[in-house]
Amino acid sequence: MNIKLRLTILNFLEFFVWGAWLISLGGYMFQTFGSEGSSIGLSIGRTYGSMGWASLLMPALMGIVADKYLSAQKVLGICHILAGAIIFYATKATNSTEMYWTIFVTCCFYMPTIALNNSVSYAILTKNNFDVQKTFTPIRVWGTVGFIAAMWATDLFNWKSNSNQFVFASIAMIITGIYSFTLPNVAPENKQQNNTLASKLGLDALVLFKQNKMAIFFVFAMLLGAALQITNMFGDSFIRDFGKIEEYKNTFGVKHSVLIISLSQISETLFILTIPFFLKRFGIKQVMLFSMIAWVLRFALFGIGNPGTGVIFLILSMIVYGMAFDFFNISGSLFVEKETDSKIRSSAQGLFMLMSNGLGSIIGGELAGRVVSHYSNNGVTDWSSAWFVFAGYALVVAILFAIVFKYKHNQKEFENVMH
């Protein structure tokens, strides 16, 4: 089989297994463990925050194993199979605490596969004399397609409302693990540089905190990272909750909430294509501000939207998500690439991920869970107030970033990074 096709299938499966449950988990927990009262919002926030805890250490450990001891595609396969076996136990969770630990251990093995998927793809493309930068991007887009396809399957088969979503994810993960073993061998290279645990975690790059510009950037990466998972946690629960209201219970949005949310991922694939233009034209500070304002709109539009006459606001929220997510994650990574010395570049990228998807995710899960719990009483949640609090948070972060972060844009420098 064609190498590019094999890697396309790998990337499709890599994110397919995540889309099967990530968006619908919060709604399932609200529905299944709602008897726990107003604390269920906090429990959901902490469950999603467990992905951040898993992201702090396990990707670095599995990266070292792949670098030194075992072929990378085998580590990728083993991690997927273990994650698939563990998430099956989510079907047996009888309370939010059991669900928390099931998702945490699942993510301890799944989260490393995201970086391993990239490493395996890069290595195989390089070995077969492909231009990695040009070839990998259209391959990686199929990962988002896989995520969307799994969301649609979970929604259309109505698995979002029961534990079948976890059976679906379990089977898909195990299949992905088996498929990984069929890929060309990516042997460990026993590298002696930049493969320590500290380096993988990005700790070698802590020296960057001595630079005001980079220190400020990483702090805001953490603050904005806190917003990344909020709509994943509560978007499905919010839309499905309208089903309690006679006016909305038979609307398309309530019946197919996950399908509606998938418009966010479709938007994400489109906004990726605009990043080179925006970075070249406006520079990293403006692009990051665009992202922050997009987060304000993402949350505020949820606050005024509904699945009936206000469905247009929900759709607009899904559209701006692409800018909110991509302009932060991808543009931020390119900024780190440009601003750091080649000797610590990998560590700097690790630090960026640690601050945003690690610490940011943990903080966001805890605080968002507390907000939703605060606005929940006797099984009723004041979602509008919660979304406006999140919008206010994003607005404050944007204003502070505009004032504090000083950066002079140079078009030619960014042209070099993007090519």
What does this protein structure show overall?
The chain has 419 residues and is mainly alpha-helical. The protein has two domains: 1-185, MFS general substrate transporter like domains (Growth Hormone, Chain: A), CATH 1.20.1250.20; 194-419, Up-down Bundle (Growth Hormone, Chain: A). Helix content is 75%, strand content 1%. It contains 17 helices and two strands. It has a two-stranded antiparallel ribbon with strand order 1-2. α3 (40-68) runs parallel beside α5 (96-127) and α13 (275-304) runs antiparallel to α14. The longest helix is centred in the N-terminal third of the chain and has 32 residues, at 96-127. The mean pLDDT is 89.
For the largest beta-sheet, the strand count, sense and barrel status come to:
2 strands, antiparallel
Number of strands: 2
| CATH topology label of the largest domain | Growth Hormone, Chain: A
Mean pLDDT: 89
CATH class category name of the largest domain: Mainly Alpha
The general outline is globular
Helical segment count: 17
